[in-house]
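My current task is to audit a protein record that another person submitted. What it holds is a sequence and that sequence's fold in token form. Thanks in advance; the entry in question is below.
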Amino acid sequence: MLCATALSCSPRPSARPSLAKFPLLHHPALPISSPSSSSPRRSNSWGWTWTGRWVSRFLSLYLSLLTSVSVSQAHEYRPSPSFTHACEDIDTYYAQLRNSKGQALQKKLHSLISPHRSLSYKQVWDALKILDAADVDNPEASPGVVEIYTLKIVPKALAGKPEGWNIVAIDSEVFTPAKTLPGEHLWPRSYGLIDRVSLSDLHNLRPSDINVNSSRGNKYYGECAFTSAKCLRPANKEAAIDTESDSKRWAPPRQVRGDIARALMYMAVSYGFHQPGGGPDLHLSDSPSIEKKEMGLLSTLLRWNKFDPPSREEKLRNDRICKFYQYNRNPFVDHPEYADLIWEQK
């Protein structure tokens, strides 16, 4: 029951406390002069005066203690902060998912993250300059962005230029800034991305060097197979030194392998049951197929998710997509364990 005041929640003193508990309150009065039979009223008056003072002090002390308890309770109360978007309150955002696993968890996540704000092409340009800024603590003032496969810092001003970071056309129309999207689609377009909602999803986009992005093409993710006749290390002369590639697979730098794995898991959940534009459902598999729209390698992505946990930069990126752009989150950044709960159950 809620209390209207601190006093109403505190134990009430008895109407008349026993004086035996407070000996000073009934101590015999000490007259100024020797008592005599001629001055009983003065003696009684003196005694009542002292008794009244002690009662007053007792009540003051009692009320002071009650006030201290009330103030202490007030300091312990922490009201919930206000949030503009539901995704900002992480604990509440995932509350409905407790004890879920397998396809049940995947479907609940889909219902949670699939509805989101779709951005215009210009908004995507501007967003990547913030989300992937070299200075994550001051992204607006940061002059450069970090490319996903080279880990190099390149000037924001070089976006879309031949010597700068990549632009990917989303359709067959005329190649113009208004009809293009920047960066690398981690989940390639040929594996089932057909409309602007999926193609412009910030969780799936990163700045990328134009030449390195062309080298990757639409290869699925994974280290070179042991039987590969030709494995390139690095995957491209301009790529990071710890990348590798063969005719089918592409392995990004080690420090972003977990990031990429979680981005693909997000895509498989967000677009795994329904695409707004009527496109095919996306899936992860150890047998990748463009025809089936199955990306991979699933077992490799699960391993990367474990060995490269979310960094501070990845968490900040997720927070900013939620708060400023799409108003949804990548659940695998907040809860990497969801990956095993979904795919290791199959």
